[in-house]
Write a structure and sequence with these properties.
The protein is 76% helix and 0% strand. Among the domains are: 110 residues, Serine Threonine Protein Phosphatase 5, Tetratricopeptide repeat (Alpha Horseshoe); 103 residues, Serine Threonine Protein Phosphatase 5, Tetratricopeptide repeat.
């Protein structure tokens, strides 16, 4: 694509296409560069401006994104999805009414399933009937991601009857959106839930605790929400638990531990609290104590495969007691959950680290057979292939990771692998 851009050095189209590829790959800096180069060739190109606006939004610069989306919506209001982009920029800034107006404006110009989904999510806390209508009106020929988001909201609404209190619906949506890490929408729902009158103190406290967590994760002040929640329901572990998470993420480990221990004393059978304590102990470098907390989490929920997977991940990530505990725990996990691609990946990776190369390859391949899009397994397989001097296939696998690792977890390490291999290959030619 770069060659096409050079060959057609006056047209913005190849650079726009290149920017869209980088945008899809979550390579924001490269996308920004491509769209800016496109705009240098055509200053008012609406598609390039829209791509740059989306890039800014992905980078967390909602103000720049909003400014560009406004400009595009004014210059080319019929550009597909332009008001949906504007609505998402408003939403990122927690300007909920402006976001709703933008999504409605989009539907007045052309059908847009994403705008319908956002309107449904915004409507649920106040008008479940309207929300259901938006979801029902969404077409079926939509992306897998949007289809999954639609089904998620449908599942949230399914338990509720016509006479369910609106505060309960708003709270349920907010909690579900917190679990999905859709922070602005979660904040919107939980603000409504926490402000609703005539509800029990315990219910309001729960909404406030989850609201505080959503605000904290979105980088907004949250301490007052936690204080209000604790005052309304001193027996609830949620405010201390969420505060502990926030403080650990900020590096205040001693205070975070105090809060998490308080949460554990209030809710001793909650495995999530022990998981967070385990992460804190890992941050402190006390791996033995972290292991003990993971064991406590498993004891609290012995049949929870997700918790077992987190325990295995701990052993793999820290290269800790692989032969004594990590590998046996992973082997036990794949026996009870034979379709767990992540577990096979972690097992294969630990076996690779422990020198059991034959079993490592088998389990890494099994992980990819179960989930061909599991980037960690591709990266770990590339490491294995490189160790076996299978450099061509290793480089191909590393390149796949650089192109498809949308989380950016393994992309930089994959580039390092490519550079190592190229250095070896160039050295062999000299």
């Amino acid at each position: 694509m770069e060659q096409a851009a050079e060959a057609h050095n006056e047209s913005p189209i190849p650079l726009i296409q290149l920017g869209q590829i980088y945008l899809h790959q979550q390579q924001s800096n490269l996308a920004e560069d491509a769209f800016n180069r496109a705009l240098a060739r055509d200053l008012e190109n609406p598609v390039a401006m829209a791509g740059l606006a989306e890039t800014y939004l992905n980078q967390g610069n909602s103000l720049k994104a909003l400014s560009l989306w406004k400009k595009v919506s004014e210059s080319d209001p019929d550009l597909p999805g332009v008001f949906t982009g504007l609505g998402r920029a408003y939403l990122a800034r927690l300007e909920f009414e402006a976001a709703q107006d933008a999504f409605l404006e989009q539907l007045s110009h052309s059908p847009d399933a994403e705008a319908q989904w956002f309107l449904a999510a915004l409507a649920i806390p106040a008008d479940i009937t309207q929300a259901t209508e938006y979801l029902a009106a969404m077409p079926t020929d939509i992306s897998d991601d949007l289809l999954a988001r639609r089904d998620y909201l449908v599942a949230v609404l399914e338990p509720f009857a016509d006479d369910t209190p609106q505060a309960a619906i708003a709270q349920a949506e907010g909690v579900a959106l917190v679990q999905a890490k859709l922070w602005p929408l979660a904040i919107h729902a939980l603000q409504i839930a926490s402000r609703t009158e005539n509800q029990k103190d315990q219910d309001k406290a729960k909404s406030l605790a989850f609201l505080g967590h959503a605000l904290a994760q979105y980088g907004r002040p949250a301490i007052e929400m936690f204080r209000q929640a604790e005052a309304l329901d001193p027996a609830s572990a949620l405010p201390a638990y969420f505060q502990g998470i926030y403080l650990r993420q900020k590096g205040a480990l001693t205070v975070a531990e105090d809060r998490l221990q308080q949460a554990a004393s209030l809710d001793p059978n909650n495995p999530a609290i022990y998981i967070e304590l385990a992460r804190l102990k890992s941050d402190q470098g006390n791996l033995a104590a972290a292991e003990a907390q993971y064991m406590a989490a498993v004891e609290a929920a012995p049949d929870d495969v997700q918790i077992l997977t987190l325990q295995v991940e701990f052993y793999a990530d820290h290269t800790y007691r692989l032969n004594e505990a990590g590998i046996p725990t992973a082997e036990a996990l794949v026996e009870v959950d034979e379709d767990n691609a992540e577990a096979y990946d972690l097992l294969g990776w630990m076996q690779f680290l422990a020198g059991d190369l034959d079993h490592a390859e088998t389990n890494l391949q099994q992980a990819l057979e179960l989930n061909p899009n599991l980037m960690s397994a591709h990266y770990h397989l590339a490491r294995y292939l490189e160790s076996q001097a299978n450099l061509t296939e290793a480089e191909q696998t590393y390149r796949l990771v650089t192109e498809k690792d949308l989380s950016n977890t393994y992309r930089s390490s994959a580039w390092e692998g490519i550079f190592r291999i190229q250095k070896q290959l160039n050295g062999s030619k000299d």
